[in-house]
Predict the 3D structure of the following.
Amino acid sequence: MILAMAGFALEDLFIKLLSLHLPVSQILITLGFSGASVFFITALLTHAPILHKDLLNKTLIIRTFCELFAALFFVSAIALTPLSSATSILMATPLMVTIGAAVFFGEKVGWRRWTAVTIGFCGVLLILRPGFDSFMPASLLAVISTVFLAVRDLVTRAMRFEISTTTVSMYAFIACGISGFIAMPFYSAMVVPSSTEIIHLISATFVGVIGYYAIVLATRNGDASVISSFRYSRLVFVMLLATIILAERPDLQTLSGAAIIVLSGVYTFIRENKLSNL
């Protein structure tokens, strides 16, 4: 899980650097289909099924649909807002999963976890600051992305079949590439990347592939109650990269909001784990 979060943090950094010169649509198309090609070759070498009857299952289709729009909105948020704030908002995804589990699966959520969720969303509002001069409407793209990611995770819980990690990863990257075509009308025309940008694209693909494969492995083979809280290591990696390389200086409100979201999420995980062991 920590390896996955480090990979995603580096991928976010490369995307931020690329967005300074390339349209988001081009970034999504390039990273999506290049990553899918890596997993396609891996599937051929490992004899993993590229086509599977369960690929037409409703839950997997919904999951892929959510992957598509989560990538579209989050990469747009990275391009249009500070990387540190976009990632901080993304950390609220587990809190949204808790709400979704209660609403759609009837999971019992006690007052302690509801309080933690409420406090966590106060942290999101602290970062967004709606109604103030510092409010950035584009930050709402990160919020929308967390909704799609939460639905994706909830749908994954409902899946009752097994598809190889390579196959799942390949179709997730295909969805990312398709999202780039959807984004094309909203961004400028594609440009020829420079040699530096080509290196960044290759690097983003490399760390993105490692990150996605690692998180699927961690989720499938690890104890969720143990590994889930390590998702927040992504924020640490991003904060360091944004500060050192992008020269971002998150203000006190952003740092406070991020801390509140993380603490609320960790408490929720601990409480869920404690209840599951009763």
